[in-house]
Amino acid sequence: MNKKDFPWLYDAEYMSYVGGLLETPEVQKLNEFTHHYISTRLLHSLNVSYTSYKISKKLGWNKKATARAGLLHDLFYYDWRETKFPEGSHAYVHPRIAYQNAQKLTTISKLEKDIIIKHMWGATIAPPRYKESFVVTFVDDYVAIKEWTQLMKMKWKHHKLFKKEKLS
Predict the structure, then answer these.
(1) Distance (Å, whole) CA 8 – CA 35
(2) Alpha-carbon torsion 18, 70, 98, 80, what sign?
(3) Which pTM does this prediction carry?
(4) Rounded to whole angstroms, what are the CA distances from 150 to 5, 146, 168?
(5) Would you say 100 and 113 are in contact if contact means Cβ atoms under 8 Å apart?
(6) What are the C-alpha distances in Å from 57 to residues 109, 139, 162, 165?
(7) Per-residue b/e over 7-39, b at no fewer than 16 CB within 10 Å?
(8) pLDDT (0 to 100) of residue 167
(9) CA-CA distance, 107 to 41, in Å (whole number)?
(10) Contact 15, 37 (CB under 8 A)
(11) What's the rounded Cα separation, in Å, for the pair 70 and 52?
């Protein structure tokens, strides 16, 4: 494993907060779901969690809650593109499902609950109550955009190769 590709594995403090959660079958199951077309839901959640943790650590905020809730913010097991809910959109429903699933794994603090439930703020009405919740919300958006950008780069690269082959 490469430290550049998996920096969280080499951060002892971060792993002390999330290592136990990462070992659970429920969190590992997230690796079975494609997320934002290019990542798995587990890798996406790790990127959100670790980046949010680093920001909170630098600012002197609650890095443990940010790391844990960042990891658990998308703890759901369905393809959001195919599943419809009578309660509302995926943006509204999945944070609540993630929170319910997280509660089955560990004790969730009020701060962690707010982070998980409100990480889709902007797509939902209720704003976050805590500064750490804003961090995870914005980092989640950043990571999603980064994943989308990687997908577009791959598509563009493939498009260029296809054009070259066609011209030959």
Answers:
(1) 19
(2) negative
(3) 0.84
(4) 14, 6, 28
(5) no
(6) 18, 14, 45, 49
(7) ebbebeebeebbeebbeeeebeebeebebbebb
(8) 47
(9) 22
(10) no
(11) 7
| Mean of pLDDT values over 89-115 | 91
What domains lie within the chain, and their CATH numbers? 7-167 (1.10.3210)
Let me know: does 63 contact 17? Beta carbons within 8 Å.
yes
Place of tokens 């989308």: 148
Provide the residue type at 65 as one letter: A
Long-range contacts of 126-129 (CB under 8 A, 24+ apart): none
Give the pLDDT confidence of 14-67 residue by residue, as tens digits. Answer: 999 999 999 999 999 998 877 656 778 999 999 999 999 999 999 999 999 999
Which residue type is seen at 106? T
23 three-state secondary structure? coil
**Residue 65 burial class via C-beta count within 10 angstroms: exposed 0-12, middle 13-18, buried 19 and up:** buried
